[in-house]
Amino acid sequence: MQNRAKKIKLVLTDVDGVLTDGSMNFFTAPSGEVVEIKKFHAFDGIAFHMLRDFGLKTGIITGGNAPATEFRAKVLGMDYLYYNFLDKEPALIDVQKRTGITYEEMAFIGDDLIDIPVLKKVGLALCVKGARKEVRDVCHATLEATAGQGAFRETAELILKAQGYWPQTIKNAEAGTIGKSKKAEVVLVNHKETRGF
Question: Where are the domains of the chain?
Answer without folding.
Answer: 2-21+41-182
